[in-house]
Amino acid sequence: MLADVHIIGPQYSSFVRSVALCCEEKGISYSLGFDLPDKKLEFKGSDHYSLHPFGKLPILLHGDRQVFETATICRYLDSEFLGKQLQPSQHYDRAIVDQWCAATSTYIDKALIRDYLIEFSFPRGEDGEIRWDRIEQAKPKAEESFGILNQQLGNSTFICGERYSIADALLTPIVDYLEKFPHAKDLFSVYPKLLDYVLRMRSRASGQSVLVAADIRS
User: Fold this and answer.
1) Based on the domain organization, do 48 and 26 belong to the same domain?
2) Which residue of 61, 141, 175, 195 could cross-link 111, Cys pair, CB 3.0 to 4.6 Å?
3) How many C-beta atoms lie closer than 10 Å to residue 8's C-beta?
4) How would you list the strands of the sheet with 5-8, edge to edge?
């Protein structure tokens, strides 16, 4: 049986995992991987740029349709397929979810993944060593981001209230990776509510399917 959609991108990518979480939550069958279903895809090759003009990932294939940008893909899936709704029906509530999707895709991802975690995982110092000066520069923004997320979460079950939304799908892979990372343990010790949040997201059926071990160096 063919999958409903194909997600182009590596399984370890936090953004690919966000799309997969939405599929799991809605009961959409999917396949994923960097290659197209019927042929190899060269990273930043002509076929890649034909699907995403900026040469990024993930990309969603749904029949003859292609959609890029993670939050947009998730909104498309939620609107196009039946099942649990991952966006509120009220305009203001939906705007809040969109707001946190945008904040997570930009500020939170940059502070916690691009500027902090990746320096440990893909060190670019001399002889492949970690640039500890970069870590020290990035840590204040990482701490600030945790404080902002902690304030937004408050005593709620999910990041935008008491209902799972696309914002949770965007945030969960980021904080899941960080919680598994020894150098980030002190961040969670200061904000235990975020640790509880990660554990809740992992315990969901979607989390158990998507948040599996992956070598982000591969």
Assistant:
1) yes
2) 141
3) 24
4) 30-33, 5-8, 59-62, 65-68
Total tally of structural domains belonging to the chain: 2
Mean pLDDT computed over 150-161: 97
Q: Which domain holds residue 34?
A: 5-80
Kindly report the pTM of this predicted structure.
0.93
Dump strand ranges (E) for the chain.
5-8, 30-33, 59-62, 65-68
CA distance 116 to 113: 5
User: Among the residues of 4-69, which ranges form H helices?
Assistant: 14-26, 46-51
Higher pLDDT, 54 or 119: 54
Contact assessment for residue 26 and residue 84, using Cβ atoms and an 8 Å cutoff: yes
Q: Which residues pair with 8 in a beta bridge?
A: 33, 59
Residue 33, Ramachandran bin (φ over 0: left; ψ between -120 and 50: alpha; else beta): left
- Average pLDDT over every residue of 107-115: 95
pLDDT of 8 higher than 70: yes
What was the pLDDT predicted at 1?
Answer: 56
- Vertex 77 angle, CA 156 and 101, to 5°: 40
